[in-house]
Amino acid sequence: MPVRAVVWPSFYQDSIALMRVAEALRALPGVREAAALLGTPANHALLASAGLSTPDAKGAAASDLVLAVDAESDATALAALEAAKDLFAARRHALETAVRVLPRTLDRALSHLPEANLVAISVPGAYAKFEALGALRRGLHVFLFSDNVPLADEVELKQLAVRRRLLCMGPDCGTAYLNGVGLGFANVVPRGRIGCVAASGTGLQAVASHLAALGEGISQGIGVGGRDLSAEVGGAMTGLALEALAADSATEVVVLISKPAADSVMPRLEAALGALGKPVVACSLGTRERADGPVRWVTTLEDAAEAAVATVRGHRWAPRGFSDPQAIRARLARVLAGAQRRGAGVLGLFTGGTLAHEARLLLEPLIGPVAPRCSTRRRGPTACGNPDAP
Amino acid sequence: METLRAVRLTTEAARRLRGSRGTGRVHSAFARTLNVELDDLGNAGWVSLHGPGPIPAPFGIASEGWAETAGLEGAPVRVEATAVVLDGRLRIRLDGAAVQNTALPARAPLPPVSECITRALAGVTGGLLPTAAALLAGDAPPTDTLARMAAPALARLYAATSAGKAADCVAAARALLGLGPGLTPAGDDCLVGWLAGAWTAGDDARRLGEATGPGLLAAATDLTGRLSTAFLTAALNGEAAEPLHGFALAPNERSLAGLLALGATSGADLLAGYLLARAALASSTEERWRCR
Questions:
Q1: Which one of A11, A14, A20 makes the best mutation probe of the B interface by having the most chain B beta carbons within 10 Å?
Q2: Tell me, what's the ipTM?
Q3: How close does chain B come to A131, measured CA to CA in Å?
Q4: CB contact under 8 A, B264 and A50
Q5: How many CB atoms lie within 10 A of CB A172?
Q6: What is the dihedral of CA A246, A251, A257, A260, to 10 degrees?
Q7: What are A361-378's pLDDT values in tens digits?
Q8: Rounded CA gap, A214 and A205, in Å?
Q9: Residues of chain A contacting residue B183, judged by C-beta atoms under 8 Å apart
Q10: What are the distances in angstroms from CA B273 to CA A34, B194, B211, B269?
Q11: What is the value of pTM for the model shown?
Q12: Nearest Cα to B57, choosing from B42, B46, B43?
């Protein structure tokens, strides 16, 4: 049994490194046993008891590291000892990379991760443009979590992004899924064949979760920011995101989730969707009913998910009515009849502008006007939400 | 020069920095830890710098991040009023860092020994916990080489602790010092835990632990590394790593998980020694019942 050992004087490694390297050496072909221990008297006895002691190892002091290998051949043992050097170095590098922290600047971060191609930015809105411009100028996609970014800044950023063919997701972009990596508040959902373009967060989260519940997954989920389809921004990032999904081999069906586009943007959006070359489900909350052409238009997030699943599976699909209008009216009448106190009403609390907006669109035909924001002075049935919330 | 901001440090680390003459050197540098020896303070002159998270040494400082540490071994260290400077390369800012008291109390609640062991063994392989667990349960110890060497020493330590015989405790400890894998070998971690257990089990128990001090440290100087000796020295003064301190104060599922997360098997070995001491020192019928 060839047993070989080396002593590395005053070679300090943390305990986990010592154990992991010993485990890795044991897993090498032809290695029967391996140990990485400090050369204390007790460990010399331990090595001897395990048949791993050698004349070389016996000279190690308590501050020295003993690496000992029992292998099928001398060559295998020596190769294993040589491999240990690389294993220690690789582990150290991996840990330093993993915990390398808190880079103060983008350049500093890039010096540690030069292969990065996307930057997540979460700084106060007033400073977001500076950081995002820096990223775009370096050829990096941007996930802009920051809110309160001035509209003019957004326009400038996205114009640059389009010129450079880079994604600038946001601002106020709460979530995205890119090649299986969730950014921001991403739900844990399966990867799949349905690609989404959405405003900023909760709409995408809701559809992704519905898809997962229906047994499908997300290929890519790109957030473009709640103002992207405004007249000022002109759908710059929506257009680029749709192009990206059209070219993405993992994406079979595309879902667009948005509030209504500005009148000046809508024709271009419809043209882009129609020319995508892949089936499209468009959920444009609050848009008037449209006849299905190359694009299937739906009015709720749940319908968007179900229509996408039916499309990708080649099944027929028809929209479902939301709940039971008569039952809702009857229940509302009971609530109002019992609401004697001043200010009584129905309060809806939402953690997402898209969800609040969708609920409002569903409720108003049934119960009349719904206040979009909380007001303690308002009487009558009230659904509250912040349409601008992420 | 790169700067890191310390966010927390133990009372013992703060005391050592205040009491130092302002110089030292880096003993060892790992991916997430730097061990520093302050000049002229001997075994009580160690300070360790760590990344974010629980402070894994009784003389530790946790920073908000981490930095490149390769090549810092042996580098000179300068202690300033509000910073520790390493070789002019790295400045650890101490201003604003919260001081965390990790001094063990004179009496801490007795943990549910068997429940803790059962939970711990579910996620631990290696080290001395399986051997200590078998001893406490009256079962045969594991048969691996480490267990075969450790089992008689642990049994002797348990008996000596129960009998309150400091000299026998030292004799048993000699067989554990420097034994096993790890930068601080498993046997050393176990003894640190044992000292913590003795410290927190009441006045008589603490005096037993203290009585082992001179013999234990003299043996440690010969039988194990200097870092281990530093941990033993701190334990003899009732200072603990934050996860062990947390477990001693409130032995529950969460603090147990925090303790077990320490190192490869260091947390489990600390637990083994701590429970062994507490079980051996259980005095009342009720306490002994909790150790079953």
A1: A14
A2: 0.89
A3: 22
A4: no
A5: 25
A6: 20
A7: 888 887 778 876 644 444
A8: 14
A9: 12-15, 18, 38
A10: 27, 4, 17, 6
A11: 0.61
A12: B46
